[in-house]
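Hey, can you fold this one?
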Amino acid sequence: MTDSAVEIAQGERFGFGENWSRFLDLVDENRILLAEQSLQALLGSSRLDALRLLDVGSGSGLFSLVARRLGATVRSFDYDPHSVACTAELRRRYRPDDVHWQVERGSVLDEAYLRGLGKFDVVYSWGVLHHTGAMWGAVSNAASAVVPGGVLALAIYNTQPVFTPFWIGVKRLYRALPNWLRPVLVWLYLGYAAGASSLVDLLRGRVPWARWGRHGARGMSLYHDAVDWVGGWPFETATPQEVEAFLLPRGFTSVWHRTVGRRHGCNEFLFRRSVH
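Sure. Predicted structure:
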């Protein structure tokens, strides 16, 4: 067994790859197009021709696929062998024998491995680094793979002084439950999240479920993302200010960000590395 498989079996790590392997049945052209539009909006470009993109923690492989479709040369890796298999399966389905898309197993915490990959124009790690068990080391290593003038795209769980300890408790409960009870906890979370967000939207004069619609614009499955959220362990968080304070002294400038305010979820960032 690989290190990650042992950690999953012992309950030290959530099986992200097993979750995303079930998501593969939902991948169709519409989801791919939604993910493609999301990546174009994030990077501010309709095409990625002549760019090298590193997908750190590729998960389902959906965003590696769309980056390749947009013209980037793609290197995908993940610590979880099931996630590697998911990404490889999408490559087999949509880009068979594509020499410009490599899929492999690796760890963002392995500095020698990262150095061996070289530098990339785009380093993309969406909702991944806070699950490594050493988030700041992972952010540093991912940042080191960005070529001068290149960009680093991150999504990092938001810190909530009151609710972050609560979510840690939820994730520990998920780990303690038998497999057949875990979906009940996921659906309870979805019911809570949908009700709470709809109430807030109504009170603020917005269309209920507006935030969930933005989620779907990335092409990801709401249920499988909820499983990822409720079960995801290891689990670390950071405020937007902490992320910027970590990366700005390392030669990065903020290009774009979207924060969740006081809510749980991910703050999203795009940083550019200085050319000097």
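The mean pLDDT is 87. Let me know if you want another pass with a different chain boundary.
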